[in-house]
Amino acid sequence: MKRRDFMKATAMAPWLVGRALANVEMPSSEQPWSVVGDLGSDGVARLAVGGMGEGTLTVEWSTVLGRKLSGRSVGDKATAATDFTAQATLKNLPSDSEVLYKARVGAKTVYGRFRTAPSSTDTPVRLVWGGDVVGQGWGIDPARGGMLTFASMLKENPHFFLHSGDSIYADVPVSPIKKMDNGETWHNLTIPEKRSPAATLKDFHGNYRYNFLDEHYRKFFAQVPVIVQWDDHEVKNNWSPAEHADLADPGRQAFRNYWPVRDGRSEPLYRKLSFGPLVDVFVLDLRDYRAPNSDNDQSKAGPETLMLGPEQVAWFKEAMAESRAVWKIVGGEMPLATYTPEWGLDSWANGKAEVLGREHELA
User: Fold this and answer.
1) Is 0.85 topped by the overall pTM?
2) Domains along the sequence of the chain with CATH
3) What is the CA radius of gyration of the chain?
C-alpha cells in the first residue's frame, strides 16, 4: 500500500481528528481495540489487538511527517485459544516521531497513534503512573461516565503509561448493582466472566475483555503506549506460586495474551526499557519468584524469604549499574510496606527495626 492510499484509508479514522478520539457508541465485547507496549529507544514496540475475530494480524504504520508508508509487520493469528487477541512486533520506528498505525485482522480494522522515544536530552519525557482497575467490585457505570480516570490521563498527553499491576481483579466479581456509602447506587455493566472469581482461562480472558468495554479505556490505550507489570489480582489476592499454581498458569497466559510485552509470551516478565537518554524503566516481577506469605520475621535469608529471587536480583543489580539514564524509574508492583497480618505479610517490610524476612533482599 502506498502512503497516499494509507492516508486516504485512514483519513476518516477518528484518531486523525485532534489528539483525542471521537466519542462512539459502545457496548459490545466485539469492539476492536489496540494497545502499544514496551516502546523503547531501540525503535521497537509490541502491539496487541483484539475484538476483531479470527485471522492473522497485519500492521501498517507511517509517520505524520513521513512521505511514504514506513513499515509493515505480520503478527500472530487471533484464535479462540487467545480470546481472539493477536500481537505483532513493530521495528525501525524513528525517534521523536508521531506514528500512525492501522491494524487488521480479517475484515476488521483498528487505528491508533503514539509518540516514539526522544533522542535528545532536550526533549522532556512525560509519563503517567497507576494501577488497580475495576477493583473491589466497582466496574463500568455508563451513567456516571465510565472509567473517567483514563480520560483524565489522556488529557495529560503522556509519552507512556507505567501500569503497576492489578490491571484486572480476577478474584473480585462485578455485580449489576453496588451500593455506595452515600446511599446512591452504582450500576455496573456485567458480562458472564465477571459474575464470579476467575477459575479458567476463559474467565481470566473475560476480565481483560471487560475493561475494553469502556470507551475511555480503549481511547487511552489506542494513543498511549504502556509498560505493564502484574501484581496479585491478575490471579488471586496475595497469591504466590507455591499456593495458587492452578490459577497462576491461566492467569499468566491471559496476561500475556492481552498485554504487549516484549519477547512475546515467554519468560521472564522482569525487564528494562530505555525511553530516550533521560529515562530507564526497570520493571520488576514481585510475584513469580516469591515464597509464600508468612510472618516475614526470619532472622536469616533463605528460600522462605524470597521476593525477587536470586536471578532477578542479579539481573537488577547489573542492569542498574549499567544504566546511564538521568532518571531511573523502578516499577515494583508492591509497596515497600503493607501491613496485612490477617493474610500473612505480602510485602517487604514487617514493621520491626531489625532486618528480617524479605527485607534481606533489600539490605
Assistant:
1) yes
2) 3-267 (2.60.40.380)
3) 21
Beta bridge partners of 186: 178
A 10 A CB-CB count for 297 gives: 14
**Residue 212, exposed/middle/buried by CB under 10 A (0-12, 13-18, 19+)?**
buried
Q: Is the per-residue pLDDT at 201 higher than 70?
A: yes
Q: What does the pLDDT look like over 162-178, one tens digit per residue?
A: 999 999 999 999 999 99
CA angle 39, 41, 43 (to 5 degrees): 70
Query: For residue 112, which of 128, 99, 94 has the smallest C-alpha distance?
Result: 99
Q: What is the pLDDT averaged over residues 312-330?
A: 97
Residue type, 276: G
> What secondary structure does DSSP assign to 194-235, as a single string?
GSS---SHHHHHHHHHHHTTSHHHHHHHTTS-EEE---STTT
Angle at 322 between CA 319 and CA 327, to 5 degrees: 85
Here the cell at position 56 is 492473522
Whose grid coordinates read 497516499?
Answer: 4
